[in-house]
Amino acid sequence: MTENGDATPLVQMEHVNKHFGALHVLKDINLTVSRGEVLVVIGPSGGGKSTLCRTINRLETIDDGRIVFDGQVLPAEGKALARLRSDVGMVFQSFNLFAHKTIRENVTLGPVKVRRQARDAADKRAMELLERVGIAAQADKYPAQLSGGQQQRVAIARALAMDPKMILFDEPTSALDPEMVQEVLDVMIGLARDGMTMVVVTHEMGFARRAANRVVFMADGQVVEENTPDEFFTNAQTDRARDFLSKILTH
Amino acid sequence: MDELIKYAPVLAEGFLENVKLSLVAAVASLILGTILVGMRVSPTPVLRAAATVYVNVVRNTPLTLVLAFSALGLSDQLGLVFSQEPSVNSFWIVAMGLSFYTASFVCEALRAGINTVPLGQAEAARSIGLSFFQSLRLIILPQAFRAVIAPLGSVMIAMIKNTTVATAGGYLADAAATMKEVFDTTGASIPIFIGIVIAFMALTMPIGYFTGWLSRRLAVAR
């Protein structure tokens, strides 16, 4: 799994706690993500999955504990934090494409403004990435003119354009019409095969089975179980996980 | 009618001063208002507080007092002088006061615009590594501006009409002051009133139509 032979984990979370007011959303989370690993986080709604995902690029701050990314504790703010975020791609549930910019501009903005790439080179790369996710023909349209599935694939291309060290997926298919889920999952499975480090919060059990190296089950702000996908789906160790699986897998 | 024709040239000269004041104040208040709104939404508490105090004080002070303070306080007492020529100096003092005043309204219109931009836009901007300033300039403000073009048009229309209280800042060359001067010699004249109203409407009505059209054209589809 470690492509470049670097054995240190890409992400280390140590004793991470977070509260939203009185609600303790993350309870003493200890978790590592290895380089090249695809980690799928599943669990009931309100269990802290999205919050966990969003702490890794500090869209959510944490109350205590620490998060180390690529050997460096997450910077609190400023330029160092912006630099960290440029190395961590993020794909949102609601796509969040820049509404006033074309598809091509959405993909080139980061490379040009953050990475200081030349416009020509960024355009060329953007078209390659859009080709890869199957949206090249729509490059000059605006986000609102695309379907949800297409927008989400553009969002993945936008993340890839930064050459990130990992990509966070925060329920990437939850806002999609059912017939558009697979086209997004196909792109994600392709990325997983290419060795991209991914943390994926999802309800798509099929994706977890096919692409995950490891499954983390979260409930009530805690990591209840960590396992391989096969073990987890066939032989979950905890009652909480078995209970969850029985509710979603029986029909 | 005769007095309107007779005094039309002086009145037109006066009106030209309103136009000049409007142009300066439009540019300056849009720039200053944008800076203010940037401060109001910035992560730095000191900047936020400073802009909030500024907007609340200036926006709630009558314009005549703002202009009188600019002329008597800033210029006469504190020695802020743009030109040794008194009429030129008064022009810039009034332009400055009017710009400061209008900027607080521009700021609030833009802040309403920022509130229409979904939070996810800022999160996406931050997550690709844009700084606060970059995401404001490249992502948030462009969408905020488009959302409030029509209200900004109203702010500009109010500002143009506000140029007629330039007298309060010691500037006596605008159309309203000129009209008063003419009335002092001829007595009040309805045709002159109407003439000036029509001149202002010719200036402000197209702004209303233009900004309405522009806001529909530039609306951000979500």
From TrEMBL, chain A:
Alphabetically ordered keywords of this record: Amino-acid transport, ATP-binding, Cell membrane, Membrane, Nucleotide-binding, Transport
Pfam family, one: ABC_tran
Main location: membrane
Membrane among keywords: yes
InterPro entries attached to this UniProt entry: AAA+_ATPase, ABC_ATPase_HisP-typ, ABC_transporter-like_ATP-bd, ABC_transporter-like_CS, MetN_ABC_transporter-like
UniProt superkingdom: Bacteria
SMART domains for the chain: AAA
A single MF term (Gene Ontology): ATP binding
Bilayer topology term: Peripheral membrane protein
Keyword Lipid metabolism: no
Localization in the cell: Cell membrane
Boundaries of every ABC transporter domain copy: 11-245
Family listed: Belongs to the ABC transporter superfamily.
Name of the molecule in the record: Amino acid ABC transporter ATP-binding protein
Organism classification: Bacteria, Bacillati, Actinomycetota, Actinomycetes, Streptosporangiales
From TrEMBL, chain B:
Domain of life: Bacteria
Organism: Nonomuraea ferruginea
Classification via InterPro entries: AA_ABC_transptr_permease_3TM, ArtM/GltK/GlnP/TcyL/YhdX-like, MetI-like
Record-annotated membrane-spanning stretches: 20-39, 51-71, 91-114, 135-160, 190-214
Signal peptide limits: none
Entry keywords, A to Z: Amino-acid transport, Cell membrane, Membrane, Transmembrane, Transmembrane helix, Transport
Membrane topology: Multi-pass membrane protein
Matching PROSITE patterns: ABC_TM1 (PS50928)
NCBIfam families: HEQRo_perm_3TM
Subcellular location per the Swiss-Prot or TrEMBL entry: Cell membrane
Sequence similarity: Belongs to the binding-protein-dependent transport system permease family. HisMQ subfamily.
ABC transmembrane type-1 domain sequence ranges: 15-211
This protein's record includes keyword Aminoacyl-tRNA synthetase: no
Name this polypeptide is given: Amino acid ABC transporter permease
